[in-house]
Design brief:
With about 325 residues, the protein is mainly alpha-helical. It folds into 2 domains: about 120 residues, no CATH class; about 200 residues, no CATH class. Helix content is about 70%, strand content about 0%. It contains 15 helices and no strands. Helix 1 crosses helix 3 and helix 5 packs antiparallel against helix 6. It is globular and about 70 Å long.
Length: about 325
């Protein structure tokens, strides 16, 4: 999620097109390519934990919980920004706010929710194929993605950009292979993976890679494997990670909402005034850290208030049931 925030600052903040200083432009390009596997990684983490489920039913509770979180921020941010005249009120804006998933207000969630609903069926398929067939399927996905994303042919696959549920399901298959087939990062794979990631970062200065580009996907696989068997022995660090992890989706919903996106980069951070400052690429990192921390704090507050309200509601319901069951004196 930190990679995603950094990538958004470079893209939505206008740094890629606005920087004219050559040194800054090189570093901005390197950071952009470095952050590019971010969305693939986020999807793969979810798939890694979903793929072991043997249930053949859609987890309606999980879907509803995520949809509720999206709806909450969609309504809250639109209301605040429209009420303060920061953005103009429009009927289309209201419609997008009330139906954020169907109207693709957050494209990531609209694609993610499809993958989540299809996950039981994907799991059933992957459980019933051999390791070899699973590997061949992953390789076919990478070939098809490369042909569509970078060669701009074979576009009927629907994965030319990576901004869709088809690509997310492809990532699901790849992440499931890493989990179900217990793939480990050997010394040879470390070298190969590192070379691919470094080459992708360098090539990103000359090629407009997509999320579904094979080099970007392989870079995500490399980073994923690098952390897969990482044994964090520091208990305090482990607790911090477990505390922050549930807040990351909220970070995305806040900082990348259409309302916040149109306001934050210019009115809060004044990005266009900083493009050619010395070492402006370091400013991006600082802004990303600040944005991540502030959004995580808001998400923590939302979760705390939601838990508090739910607890009160349960108590009210329990008392009402108790009174119904108790006979009158």
């Amino acid at each position: 999620m930190f990679f995603i925030v950094g990538h958004h600052f470079i893209g939505h903040g206008g740094w890629e097109s606005g920087v004219t200083n050559e040194v800054n432009a090189v570093f901005i390009g390197l950071f952009s390519a470095f952050f590019l596997p971010s969305v693939n990684l986020f999807v793969m983490i979810s798939a890694y934990f979903l793929c072991t489920s043997t249930s053949e039913r859609v987890n309606v509770r999980k879907v509803a919980k995520l949809w509720g979180q999206v709806f909450f921020y969609s309504v809250l941010l639109f209301t605040v920004f429209a009420a303060t005249d920061t953005i103009p009120y429009t009927d289309d804006g209201l419609l997008n706010t009330l139906f954020p998933t169907l109207k693709e207000k957050y494209w990531f969630f609209s694609a993610y929710i499809v993958m989540l609903v299809l996950s039981p069926f994907l799991n059933a398929m992957l459980r019933n194929i051999s390791r070899r067939s699973h590997l061949v399927l992953c390789l076919l996905i990478l070939v098809a993605a490369e042909l569509a994303a970078d060669a701009h042919i074979f576009n009927t696959t629907g994965i030319s950009s990576g901004y869709n549920a088809v690509w997310f399901c492809c990532l699901y298959v790849i992440a499931a292979y890493l989990r179900l087939r217990d793939v480990r990062l050997t010394r040879t794979k470390v070298v190969i993976g590192g070379i691919i990631y470094a080459a992708t970062i360098v090539a990103g200065q000359f090629v407009s890679f997509k999320y579904s580009s094979a080099p970007v996907c392989l870079s995500a696989v490399y980073v994923f494997l690098a952390f897969k068997h990482l044994n964090i022995k520091n208990e305090r660090l482990s607790k911090i990670i477990c505390f922050v992890s549930p807040l990351t989706f909220g970070v995305y919903l806040i900082h990348d909402s259409p309302e916040m996106r149109s306001f934050m980069y210019e009115n809060i951070f004044h990005c266009s005034q900083l493009y050619d400052l010395p070492a402006s690429f370091l400013i991006i990192i600082s802004f990303a850290v600040i944005t991540f921390a502030v959004c995580a704090a808001f998400e923590f507050l939302r979760r705390a208030l939601t838990t508090f309200a739910a607890d009160i509601f349960r108590r009210i319901v329990t008392r009402a049931k108790t009174k119904e069951n108790c006979p009158a004196p």
